[in-house]
Structures are given as structure tokens and as C-alpha cells.
Design goal:
Helix content: over 70%
Strand content: under 5%
Number of helices: 26
Shape: globular
Structural class: mainly alpha
Number of strands: 0
Distance between the termini: 53 Å
Largest sheet: none
Radius of gyration: 25 Å
Order of helices and strands: HHHHHHHHHHHHHHHHHHHHHHHHHH
Oligomer: single chain
């Protein structure tokens, strides 16, 4: 009995148990991705037009991305306290919206509903921050896979909640809002004493590689299964019993990753490997001196060295580093220390904000993820304008593609940096080109193009949230990762403010007014006046509703690709230093 109790304690303190708990939390935490499903019922119940609905979308994005208060509270409160605050915000915000939509409380002005949406969605920032900070500290040497998997489950939460909604099979569409208010809050409360830092850098095991492979396999199985379930439910009229069975299998797959911590806790004991570094500044130690020497490589390195093959470039850099280290030790060279940190060292948010690399990453994120989130927010109207009656299928599909984009983005970008010693933003540029094609497919409105467009846009959008946080941690350090991450998430509301509120909604309302008046030309004053009139619900049909918007977004995704490649050019030396160190040491 004593041995069993000891193993239970080992399980509770296992970093893999925390990781699995964070997966479960994230699988319910991406409530913002369901806005495309709940927006039609809000629009019809409250009599909003497309412009007013877009304002709710911006409020949702602001709530999802404004995490400065979250970062402060997470430093003051214990981890469980931060999760409790997030659960309370989620429940109060969306619970009140549900009461308004169902007529159980008096209707509120648009600005008040925006505040409620903001409050409800802001709870998600607590779930994200707690999950990422806890798991990055527990897995300091596996940032790409950990961030990609966790953000992937957050992206899949839309499909999971939609499947549960199908199981409930309520004729009242407002019940989905109720699920958004109650479901994530209950899960967060259940997991608030599980998801936390546990000193995972001391728990390195030889089987960690196999464990990650197993988790990746579960992720792929989950995505394939969800896609199959949606296709079956869309094509065939399945019975309530079949839906219950399908949903039960879904929950079984979600629980499967618990096998990893259970096998580590109750299986044969493994000999721990060398502890992982915490990836924190080591003070003015020999390591600090070495990194200062490495920063001198940018000055001493010949300009044509970057044109050499990766292996030869690493050998030359290793030789140059060796000479600098020896010269500094003998006193022949005085190593100069520049003010502030260098790329790859720990930056504060203030220090990062004055760096061109940070703004290149941020603007690229605005253009790429902002355009993708605009599609997610307007999926209901996009599908209806193209003649699809059920928007839930596209919301679920783009959640799955978003999930695979995050998983794949983390995995592919990790191969780029570790196997090829090439900057991670190169993978971001490739996914932004994929998004460009997806926007064009949606804009053309061809038969079946909505399916292809949501596939490509979902993959590209999801990849941003695996690649950008990992890139920020590599270029600006992990000590202030929470503040840096929460600032980068502002790219979503900034992007949707431009794409959704200022472009998509205006073009949609203009085309709807044209159709309502038989194609007559309307001046801007009449469009704005009628768009602000709550009594007129605008509706547009045909590909023309989002054609111009999609073309504009595609063009800006191309611009984002250019910015990402410029960042690749600027950071080649940094990544050669970060991921070429082990190779260089072997060559010395």
C-alpha cells in the first residue's frame, strides 16, 4: 500500500501528467474559435447587422489577446488562483450573453455586449498562460513540440465543443453559448491543482522521445477521427445512438495520452539522464563570457561565410570561436560588451520593443494570423453567402486544420532549426504562402472551394501559433516569455480590426445593399446610415460578398511572407549559434 501511494505521488509530480492535464485544459480553452458558430444566433436574436457583429468579433479578439493583466496576476497569484480567475471570467461573460440571447435578462446596448464578450473570452488568456508557462518550464528543451501541441488542442476545441453540441441535439441554438460558458470553466476548476510547474527539467528520461512520438500519434488519430465523424454526420443522417457512440470514442481518444505518465509512474524505473538547462541567464559566469564571445562572431565573421554549406559554415564558426576564446583567455583580445542583451539572450518587453526583429515578427503575425482569424470569425456569413445551410461543419473543419497546422508547424519548424540550422521564420513564410492560396480559393467561390480554402487557411493560421512563440523565445529569451507572448497575441485584434471591421464588414454590407436595391449604386453615407440601423438586417448572397476581401487578404499574406524571409536573413547567425553549438563543440 505504501509503494502504491508513493507511485501516486510520483504521478502527481510528473511533468508528463502536467502536460496531459494542460492538453485537456487547452482542448476546452479555445472558446474564441466557436464565435463563427454562435455569431448567427447572436445576430438574429439581437437584430445586429454585419458591422455590429464585426465589432463583437473585435471585442472577442481583444479579450482573447489582451493578457497584460493575466501576466501580472499569474506572477502574484498561485497557478490554481489564476485558473480560478479565468474560469470565473469565462462563466460570467458568456453566461450573461446567454441570458440576454434567450431573453431571460433585459437586452443591453452593443457596447455592453462587447464588454461581456471581452470578459468571457479573456478567461482564455489565463488558461493559455498557465498551460504554456507551466509546460515550457517543465520541458525547457522541447519548446517547439510543447507549444505546438498545446496550442493545437486549443485550436481543436471548437470541433470538440461542436461535437458535444450535436450530442445534446438541442433545437435551441443558444444552448451552444451556454456550453461555452459552463464547459471550459468546469474543466479549468477540475485541473487547477494539476497544471503547474513541477521542476520538470530534473525528470529527463531516455523514453521522452518515444513519449512525444506517442503524443503526436494520438494527435493525428484525433484529427483523422474528427474529420471522419464530421463527414459522416454531414453526409448521413445518423441516429442519436450513433452520435453518442462517436462522442464517447472522442473522449476516449482525448484520455489516451494519460498512458504516458501512468507508464512512467507505475512502470519499470528508468535511470534519469543529465538535467536539462532551465534556459535562464546564468549570471556573469564562464557561460556568459562564452556568449559574449559568440556575439563577436557577427563582427569578426567574413561576409561570405553565410554562403557556405551548413556543415562547412559551422566548422568555420567553430574555428573562429575557438580563436576568440583563446585570445580572450590570454588577454590578447579585450572582448567588448555592448549595452543590453543580444539576440538569443533574455530581453525584457521594453528592450524587445525597440528591436527591428521583434516588429518584423509582430507585423508578419498581424498580416498572417489577422487574415486567418477574419475567416474564422466570418465563417457563418461566408458559408451562407455561398449557399451552405450549416456553418457548423466549416467551424469544425477549420478547427481541425488549425489543430494540424499548430502540430505540424511546431514539428516542421523544429526540423528546420535542428536538422538544417536554419531560422525558424522560414517555416512561417512557407505557411503564409499556403494561406495566400487558401484566401484565393474562398474568394473565387467555386464548387467545393470553401472546403479547400478552410483547409489551407486553417493550416496556415494554426502554424503561426506554434512558430511565432517559439521564435520569440529563441530570439528574446524565456525569462520574460509570458510578457512577450501576450504582446504578440495583440496581433490578432489588430489584424481583425483592419481585415474584419474596416474591410470585410464594409464590403459585405456594401454588396448586401446593392443586392437589396437591385444593384443600384449607393454612396458611402447611405451605406453607413443603413448599416448602423439595427432594424435592417443585411444579407448578401454569392461569391462577390467576400471576393474583394479575400483578394486583399491574399495580397497582404504575400507581404507577410516577404517580412518573414527578411527576418530569416537577419537571424541566420543567431540560429547558427543557438543550434550549431553542439555541432561546433564536436568539431573543436
Amino acid at each position: 500500500m505504501g509503494e502504491f501511494k508513493e507511485k501516486l505521488v510520483t504521478l502527481y509530480k510528473s511533468r508528463w501528467f502536467v502536460f496531459v492535464g494542460a492538453m485537456w485544459l487547452q482542448s476546452w480553452a479555445g472558446i474564441g474559435y466557436l464565435f463563427g458558430s454562435i455569431s448567427p444566433v447572436i445576430k438574429s436574436s439581437l437584430g445586429y447587422n454585419q458591422k455590429q457583429l464585426a465589432m463583437l468579433g473585435v471585442a472577442k479578439d481583444l479579450g482573447d489577446c489582451v493578457g497584460f493583466v493575466t501576466g501580472i496576476l499569474c506572477e502574484v497569484l498561485p497557478i490554481w488562483g489564476a485558473l480560478l480567475v479565468g474560469a470565473s471570467l469565462n462563466f460570467v461573460g458568456y453566461g450573461w450573453v446567454w441570458l440576454i440571447v434567450t431573453g431571460q435578462t433585459p437586452s443591453l446596448p452593443l457596447w455592453a455586449v462587447c464588454i461581456l464578450i471581452f470578459i468571457g473570452t479573456n478567461g482564455e488568456t489565463y488558461f493559455n498562460t498557465v498551460s504554456l508557462v507551466s509546460c515550457v518550464q517543465n520541458f525547457p528543451k522541447s519548446r517547439g513540440p510543447v507549444v505546438g501541441i498545446l496550442k493545437g488542442f486549443a485550436g481543436l476545441s471548437g470541433a470538440i465543443l461542436t461535437q458535444i453540441y450535436v450530442l445534446v441535439h438541442s433545437p435551441d441554438h443558444a444552448s451552444l453559448i451556454f456550453m461555452v460558458a459552463v464547459g471550459p470553466s468546469m474543466v479549468a476548476i477540475c485541473l487547477m491543482f494539476i497544471v503547474r510547474p513541477v521542476g520538470g527539467h530534473k525528470q529527463v528520461r531516455p523514453s521522452d522521445g518515444k513519449s512525444f512520438t506517442f503524443v503526436y500519434s494520438v494527435c493525428l488519430l484525433l484529427a483523422v477521427y474528427m474529420m471522419g465523424v464530421m463527414i459522416v454526420q454531414d453526409v448521413v443522417d445518423v441516429s442519436e445512438t450513433v452520435i453518442t457512440i462517436l462522442t464517447s470514442i472522442l473522449f476516449l481518444i482525448l484520455v489516451t495520452p494519460i498512458v504516458v505518465p501512468l507508464s512512467l509512474a507505475f512502470g519499470p524505473a528508468e535511470k534519469p539522464l543529465e538535467e536539462e538547462a532551465l534556459l535562464e541567464p546564468q549570471g556573469h559566469s564562464q557561460l556568459d563570457s562564452d556568449e559574449v564571445i559568440l556575439s563577436e562572431l557577427e563582427d569578426e565573421k567574413p561576409k561570405d561565410m553565410d554562403l557556405l554549406p551548413a556543415l562547412e559554415r559551422q566548422k568555420r564558426i567553430a574555428q573562429l570561436q575557438s580563436r576568440l576564446l583563446q585570445a580572450a583567455a590570454e588577454g590578447a583580445v579585450r572582448v567588448k560588451r555592448r549595452r543590453g542583451p543580444h539576440r538569443g539572450e533574455d530581453f525584457t518587453l521594453t528592450q524587445a520593443l525597440i528591436k527591428a526583429d521583434f516588429w518584423l515578427l509582430f507585423i508578419s503575425m498581424v498580416l498572417g494570423s489577422g487574415s486567418g482569424l477574419t475567416v474564422i470569425d466570418n465563417l457563418g456569413q461566408m458559408s451562407q453567402s455561398l449557399g451552405y445551410d450549416n456553418a457548423h461543419i466549416f467551424v469544425s473543419m477549420i478547427s481541425i486544420w488549425n489543430f494540424l497546422g499548430r502540430i505540424g508547424g511546431g514539428y516542421i519548424s523544429e526540423l528546420v532549426v535542428k536538422d538544417h540550422t536554419y531560422p525558424r521564420p522560414a517555416a512561417l513564410a512557407a505557411f503564409q504562402l499556403i494561406m495566400t492560396v487558401g484566401h484565393l480559393f474562398i474568394g473565387m467561390g467555386w464548387p467545393g472551394s470553401m472546403y479547400v480554402g478552410t483547409l489551407l487557411v486553417g493550416l496556415g493560421y494554426g502554424a503561426h501559433w506554434a512558430i511565432v512563440p517559439a521564435t520569440a523565445s529563441e530570439l528574446f529569451g524565456l525569462r520574460n516569455f509570458g510578457a512577450l507572448y501576450n504582446f504578440l497575441t495583440l496581433a490578432n485584434p489588430v489584424g481583425t480590426l483592419v481585415f474584419s471591421s474596416l474591410i470585410a464588414s464594409r464590403i459585405y454590407d456594401r454588396e448586401a445593399e446593392k443586392q437589396a436595391h437591385g444593384g443600384q449604386h449607393l454612396n458611402l453615407g447611405s451605406i453607413v446610415a443603413q448599416a448602423l440601423n439595427n432594424s435592417s438586417e443585411l444579407s448578401c448572397e454569392g461569391y462577390i460578398c467576400f471576393f474583394m476581401t479575400s483578394c486583399i487578404m491574399a495580397g497582404l499574406c504575400v507581404l507577410a511572407t516577404g517580412l518573414s524571409m527578411f527576418l530569416v536573413y537577419r537571424t541566420r547567425i543567431v540560429y547558427a549559434s543557438l543550434y550549431g553549438k553542439s555541432s561546433m563543440r564536436n568539431l573543436l
